[in-house]
């Protein structure tokens, strides 16, 4: 194949050297991709992913209301890989259900362990579209809950807003069933998708999580106006609001001033391991102001 590429490169003349080197780079990149995919597939199969936890804080009381489970992958070859990279790969490879299963097992195991230590904690988990739409998802979820001594009321299901629009009616069926079973439903990364007011009103949604990208623009007048508009809309629809990506005390107090009760971000705590999170839950979150 390399020979025929070279031949082709030669035959097209002038830019052949550039062309040839592009092809070589592309091939190297796709070889690297394939190798990465194989390592991810192996990591999922052998349960090598780790679940970290980030607290969501009631800004008025300082109490942790939920912890969000966020998956981490340490790849032996390249180190920590961002979920924004490996989650889409797992989705493309058809491995997201298996990944989701591992995440639920680990996360529920942690909740169960905390309970044995006398700590009752609600948890939010991220669920991707392929997972939500798979026919066995709901029953697997419930089976795993029961085997860990947990109830739907202990769990929030986060789905990203981009998901919220596509296959709207199919999604409604799944979300309604989960909501009726007692799970709370959160729309994640709210503001980055295209949900309409009427869809939001019809959907069995309890919580809007305002995306990091809005939080990071709160230093501008326009950014503040957009967040205010989203908050007012959520309040009008009687939806709870969580603002993600809170990094500074000024951001936290501005949002509290708007009536936002739940905040999440590095200002309070980054995602941390189960044992670090246990310590934090027992000792309470202290923020330096
Ligand atoms: P997400 O659910 O919207 O999670 C919030 C992301 O913001 C997390 O990124 C978190 O580490 C990050 N974050 C938290 N506080 C701050 C802050 O103060 N500033 C900034 N700039 N960022 C902050 P992470 O952990 O890299 O996860 C990225 C995304 O990957 C998640 O976004 C979620 O959509 C997806 N994801 C993670 N774990 C899972 C999983 O188990 N299943 C599925 N389906 N998706 C997952
Ligand atoms: Mg989330
Ligand atoms: Mg988000
Ligand atoms: Mg996100």
UniProtKB/TrEMBL annotation:
Annotated organism of origin: Chitinivorax tropicus
Coiled coil feature spans: none
Protein name in UniProt: Diguanylate cyclase (GGDEF)-like protein
The EAL domain, residue ranges: 33-285
